[in-house]
Amino acid sequence: MDLLSFVRALPEGYAYAPIYADGAVMPGDGKPSRGKSPHGRARYHVMGPADVALQIERQPDVFKAVGAFTGPRSQGLVILDVDANLARLKKKWGATLEGAPCVTSTKANAAKYLFLVPEKHWGEVKGLSLAATGAGYEVLWGRQGLLYGVYPGSSDGKAPAGEYALSGDLRSIPEAPAWLLAEMRESAAASDSVDGRGFLKNRKALDVSDRTDDEIAEIAQDCLRVIPQQGAGSRDHWLQVGMALHAALPGELGLTLWSAWSAEDPEYSNEWAEGNPCEKPWGSFKQGGGIGFATLVWLADQQDPLRRRFSDASRGVLEAAEARQVQEVRQATLSFEEAMSRMKTVMELEDPGKRNFELNQLALQAGYRDQSRLEQVYVDHVGFVENPGEITADKLADFVVGREYLIPDLLPTPGVVLMYGSGGDGKSMSAWTLGRHVLEGLPFLVRGRPVPVQQGDVVILNGDQPLSDLQEQLQEAEFPLDERTLIRGEWSLHYYAQFMELMKRRRPKLVIIDSLIGCSGGKAFDENKSEFAQPLYWLTRNNGVLYPATTILVIHHANKQGGFRGTSAIRDAVNEVWALRKPEGALLAEVGPSARVITVEKSRCGRGGTQLLMQMENDLSFSIRDFTPEVNPDDTTPASHSDRVLQRLRTVFPRTLRQADLNSDPLVGGRVAATKKAIQRLVKRGLIEAVEGVPGARGSTVFHYRAVLVHPDTSTTRARGEAKNVSPSGHSPCAAVDRLGDTPPVEKEGVPQSEGGSDEGGATGGHIPENDPPCPPVKGSRTKGSATGGHSGEYPHARGRKADGSESAEVAPGAALDQAVNLWS
Predict the structure, then answer these.
(1) Where are the domains of the chain?
(2) What pTM was estimated for this model as a whole?
(3) pLDDT for 734 beyond 50
């Protein structure tokens, strides 16, 4: 049985752990695993079969086995781990081993047997090490034991690598035999004895002149008795215990307690050969500046939640201290370092309900009234740790995530886009339709031509509507309802730390937040205050910095007049602002009442003035496309040069052109420097790409550029039907080009190809000869401004008026596009 199938079949109720593969580097420890170390989160939290399966499924090369923690966390599970002399021990223990689940490996004369300790004995037993028994076996209580998966081989090299195999039923684990319980009780009674290093002999040695220290030491020793040593890869755990002791007992007494506990870890027995390994780190701990004593109690509570470990006297001291803590109503009970450490642990919890509960509890202990304030502190702390600090401009590129486009020249990554409109006008439907393009990689019309879309997962953070309404909307938009989309309801924009964790776990291409008001919780009434925009500033500033780069689309409501609602700081905080409105006037007659026009009102990417068209089709499905002309013939400003370069490269697609070809092209015109800048800006916007480079003069590289379009030979399934290989310009193509661009040149026998490709009587270097008729320009509508690739800041509107005030009848990609390229009907 493969590992995942085994894990998914495990019974609930035990604390399982994914096991790092041999050689895998363990986070936090920085050292390679020896094939038996558990996932860090499993040390403190109970992971069920589904939790373990998730980790293995995500990182199959990192986790190669599964284990289980023993002790109260696993209903009293105890593992008798026989490392040698199995045959002899079987004779000694006889039938008491029969019926117990058994784990074996390639190691001869060795096995593990699983039993359950009755709950009434949990507070009086303890495990045994190999050194303690001296008979080739140990008893695991509180520690972890392997159940199934890859066996890395024995440390002495005698047993080869292989597999752990489990026989028996984990749902029918027998009670621990009487002889085993007796050994465990004896081990607990002798746990305070000295092993020759001068540690505590008995609890009477805690009698110090200061009664408060005596009480604390009594509680500490009770806690240490149930906190297990965790072997290789647990340095953080070891230091955490030491710091917690140092916070309350910074002198020799605390060091003695920590040393005695540390010495019981058999996997670090060799560390004591050259002295006490606890002394050096103990001297580096700072009083009052690290983890507090409460952490020690908390670690012990994970193993003994009912606190059976305490004597009546110790329990009374602890309860009195906790009661005083409540009565004093202290504003903060945790140090900053302890709060941040525990915050990191809580953020790793999978269960959102439990995570929010723990966050609220931690916030109260830290002196905050709600968890969002503590999350903000944590996020600020993480940002400070990961911030590069002062850098010179030449190093800036090392810390910046390069901008890409989910949809070329439309959806930037990283980027935050805010779309607003009146209620019921189709904001959510537009978002779901865009999400469908990303989820399935459906090509998108940009400037009248289909461009490829980056495919990836989608996350929907919903705070605006019930799930039933959301489901209906997604179904109407033909949005695929599968595991590629994660939906989180009741979301708050102030869950900064949770958002970071979610982005790192899912790594979506697109995040849709519906809506700004709905996800603002109790702060929604502050929308006219600049502080209301703070979450948007945070999302924009940290996109690609504190969490993986993604595109975030935020849905926002318009005011009663249909204008922008709330403080202007909302506009300032995001990369782009889109306004969705119903068409009016001549535009209404042209596109119909079922269409919606989305206008880019603000853009940091230089796309101001561009438009999108969202439309309900005849079959009641929805489509969305760019609504901006490829070239505006009335625009003679320098800014239009980029549009002509783009059109030329699209005309010859899928062939490539060099900058020299574009410089000499009469249809492109303009200066050489302008063409160079136009190419750079078009590459940045994702509309063209550099596909190859060949050596040029003086060691330079000559690049070839190609338009980013769906290849005519690519059969891409749309939401409804197949793409049509047609000329989206609505005009007949010029000589030497197909209906979707030039056909790739065919090399004829005996006729060598020139650089960039050529065909007889055709283009050379990707350029059409002068005796060929030029391609007619795509006619566009009257513009409000000029196109940009970093030029004026506004693209030509898809619809407008001529200079004489009359309506423009020339459309691109309007009527011509509807005739030639209708991807959705």
Answers:
(1) 3-189, 203-383, 400-580
(2) 0.49
(3) no
